[in-house]
Design brief:
This protein is α/β, with parallel strands linked by helices and about 290 residues long. Residues about 1-25 and about 235-240 have low confidence and may be disordered. A hairpin with a 2-residue loop joins strand 5 and strand 6 (about 85-90). The chain folds into three domains: about 10-125, Conserved hypothetical protein from pyrococcus furiosus pfu- 392566-001, ParB domain (Alpha-Beta Complex), CATH 3.90.1530.10; about 175-235, no CATH class; about 245-290, no CATH class. The radius of gyration is 23 Å and the shape is globular. The chain has helices spanning about 55-70, 90-100, 115-125, 130-145, 150-155, 160-170, 175-185, 190-195, 200-210, 215-235, 245-255, 280-290; strands at about 15, 25, 35-40, 45, 75-80, 85-90, 105-110, 260-265, 270-275. It has a five-stranded mixed β-sheet. It has a two-stranded antiparallel sheet with strand order 1-2. Helices cover about 50% and strands about 15% of the residues. The two termini are about 45 Å apart. It is built from twelve helices and nine strands.
Length: about 290
């Protein structure tokens, strides 16, 4: 059964479509529009696309479907500086390239930057393709770049104002925590609990504890409550005089690796601890170190 379209943007383009290759998907053409075949190499992705990560497994499934059925639903494009820029259908475009198609069906539709961002957001939200950080960044871009208020954004994407506001708050988290959220190591529920901690360094300490102990959301909420009561007292009672130069280096390393990094330093020796979460995260850090173990 087709999902109900969110907002007005995508619904004005595609009626009743809930996947990329639904056989009975119908594209509503506006007066003067038609479907044409264009070389796949002539298309470029939109810089306004809020989605940054495309799961290989999902693309493989779409590739198989396109290989068997072809592209049922045309891509939506606009012309920018003489180039054909994708508005909707980047997954289909990527999967079609994997299949080896030379041409794809498109509908050309003049659209403003704001309309492009809205439609991309709605398409991805409808298919639940965005991670929490990508969604938040999309809302913030609508607010900052186009001056839309939260209630207007909520109406455009078919969500409540509170949902949009809570999503945007996720960008108040430290970058390393945002990455864990985007990678799925932390859930939005965990993130909301961590947002109860205002100090950036304490946010990282708390998130590391949540990850290390594999806490549920409920456990994380209780942990944050207890941290408010005891955490600061413990940290202040155990505080030591730290060389500000070492602290600055530690902060730069933390930002570089986007994860908790600690320097244990004395005048005679020391060690650097870099935390990682899983094989993929370890590979990411090794790449940052310039090491290739393949």
């Amino acid at each position: 059964m087709a999902k109900k379209a969110l907002g007005k943007g995508l619904g004005a383009l595609i009626r009743g479509a809930s996947s990329d290759t639904v056989p009975d998907a119908k594209v509503e053409l506006r007066p003067g529009e038609s479907v044409s075949q264009v070389p796949i190499a002539d298309l470029i992705p939109s810089p306004l696309q809020p989605r940054k990560h495309f799961a290989e497994g999902s693309l493989d499934e779409l590739k198989q479907s396109i290989d068997q059925l072809g592209i049922i639903q045309p891509l939506i494009i606009r012309r920018v500086d003489g180039q054909m820029e994708l508005i909707a259908g980047e997954r289909r475009w990527r999967a079609s390239k994997m299949v080896g198609l030379e041409t794809v069906p498109v509908i050309e539709r003049p659209s403003s930057d704001r309309e492009v961002l809205e439609m991309a957001l709605i398409e991805n939200l409808q298919r639940q393709d965005l991670n929490a950080i990508e969604e938040a960044e999309g809302y913030v871009r609508l607010a900052k770049d186009f001056g839309l208020k939260q209630d207007i954004i909520a109406k455009r994407v078919g969500k409540s104002r509170a949902s949009v506001a809570n999503s945007m708050r996720l960008l108040d988290l430290q970058p390393s925590i945002q990455r864990h959220l985007a990678d799925g190591h932390l859930t939005v529920g965990h993130a909301k609990a961590i947002l109860g901690i205002k100090d950036p360094k304490e946010q990282i300490v708390v998130s590391d504890q949540i990850l290390r102990q594999n806490m549920t959301v409920r456990s994380a909420e209780k942990f944050v409550q207890n941290y408010h009561k005891t955490g600061r007292k413990k940290s202040s009672s155990k505080s030591k005089v730290v060389d500000p130069h070492i602290t600055a280096i530690q902060n730069r390393l933390r930002d570089h690796f986007a994860t908790q990094t600690v320097i244990h330093h004395t005048d005679k020796k020391g060690r650097i601890e870099i935390e990682y979460y899983g094989n993929d995260d370890l590979g990411r850090i090794l790449n940052l170190l310039g090491l290739d173990l393949d």
